[in-house]
């Protein structure tokens, strides 16, 4: 009964990396971003405070976008930390440690490198507690692979569990699989690095219409007055707004290497 209670306590502390819970600071930041974005679009395209009625929809879109980005960034951190963890585990196995002891020993090194509260630091702490409670290592790794939502981690844990169940040269399998997993993750990081400058250029291009609008308002005041507060102007600006938003969505999809 005591061990059952401990296992339930461990399960409650597990992180599902496909989900994310905002802190109140992050909620507040998202609120101000949505308010500013709604005001900017309302002022540029309609010059009417009635446009602020779209604030709830804008907030919902930005909230989902921020949540998706935060989940992806956390997965990227986890992927990098996992790669280093497996390399350290492999080195420990080559030095003569058992597989369980290699995972236990690497917890301190990951804590020094990334911090005890890092994603992999917390996962290794769960593995240590699980081994203390006599939970099978392959069972915990399979659970971690499912929760990670990362293909490379899931593939590694499934291969590990299968090899552990069927027997064979487990140490050689771990080393070979770790090398392949590390290469795949490194390739993805290289691609992301190459796209970083393009994503920065994309953000600049998204700001250019607002900068041009501000410049024209200063240098040629009244130039756009004919486009506001009349049916034809509203229709034209609505089409322009639709084209702008469609181009933003298309640019993000092009830059998303995971799509």
Automatic annotation (TrEMBL):
Which GO terms of the cellular component aspect does the record hold?
A: plasma membrane
Q: Where are the transmembrane segments?
A: 20-38, 44-63, 204-220, 232-251
User: Is RNA-binding tagged as a keyword?
Assistant: no
**Locate the Type II secretion system protein GspF domain: which residues?**
92-216
Q: What is this protein called?
A: Type II secretion system F family protein
Q: Which organism is it from?
A: Gallintestinimicrobium propionicum
| Record-linked InterPro entries | T2SS_GspF_dom
Cellular compartments annotated: Cell membrane
Keywords recorded for this protein, A-Z: Cell membrane, Membrane, Transmembrane, Transmembrane helix
- One matching Pfam family is T2SSF
Would the keyword Cell membrane be found if you checked this record's keyword annotation? yes
What is this entry's stated membrane topology?
A: Multi-pass membrane protein
